[in-house]
Amino acid sequence: LGLSSADKADIRDWEEMVEVNVLALIKLTHLLLPQMVAQGYGHIINIGSIAGSYSYPGGNVYGATKAFVRRFSLNLRADLYDKNIRVTNIEPGLCGGSEFSLVRFKGDEAMAKNVYADTTPLMPEDVAQSVLWVASLPQHININTLEIMPTIQAPAALNVHKHTKL
Questions:
Q1: Annotation marks residue 81 as catalytic
Q2: For 13-57, what is each residue's pLDDT tens digit?
Q3: Whole-angstrom Cα distance, residue 73 to residue 56?
Q4: CA 17 to CA 62: how far, in whole Å?
Q5: How far apart are CA 91 and CA 48, in angstroms?
């Protein structure tokens, strides 16, 4: 939610991102995992984000929650390696065609549309195709993480602020 710098962010937005991206994920996993273990197979496919690996201004808690998804997925895989349960974290980059930016900007359609203006982002169908691909691989293959970006996006250079001389 939002793109405010950490010093200007709304704590309620931070709490909501943690509730949705972290707490809901761990509660659902905790609910479903015993059944997968009992049946002797399964595949947990989490949707992370490149924001879990690449920091950007205003991505403070969102990026942190997606870093949690990445670590949680990898740690689940470490716990489940001998249970025939696969764990994959799909990490999309810029993705349009959904309500993501509309939610991020609390219904501000102009701001949401501006994110994708003059770009060719990933679309939900692209992310779904990656989920289908990892799910359809033979049972003995596990894709730990799959980072996908549109060709118009690349990992950004680290920003450096230049002081102005008075």
A1: no
A2: 999 999 999 999 999 999 999 999 999 999 999 999 999 999 989
A3: 22
A4: 6
A5: 5
Nearest-CA neighbor of 115 among 147, 151, 153, 146? 153
Closest CA to 90 of 120, 126, 39: 126
Give the pTM: 0.90
What does the alpha-carbon distance between residue 128 and residue 118 come to, in Å, rounded to a whole number?
A: 23
Residues 87 and 23: their CA atoms lie apart, in Å, by 18
Q: Which residues pair with 85 in a beta bridge?
A: 42
Alpha carbon distance 96, 102 (integer Å):
10
Going by the DSSP 8-state scheme, the letter that residue 88 receives in this structure is: E
**Count helices and strands in the chain by DSSP H and E runs:** 6, 3
Domains of the chain: 6-148 (3.40.50.720)
SS3 of 92, please? strand
The DSSP-derived string for 98-128 is SSHHHHHTTT-HHHHHHHHTT---B-HHHHH
Marked catalytic residue, from 41, 54, 56, 62: 62
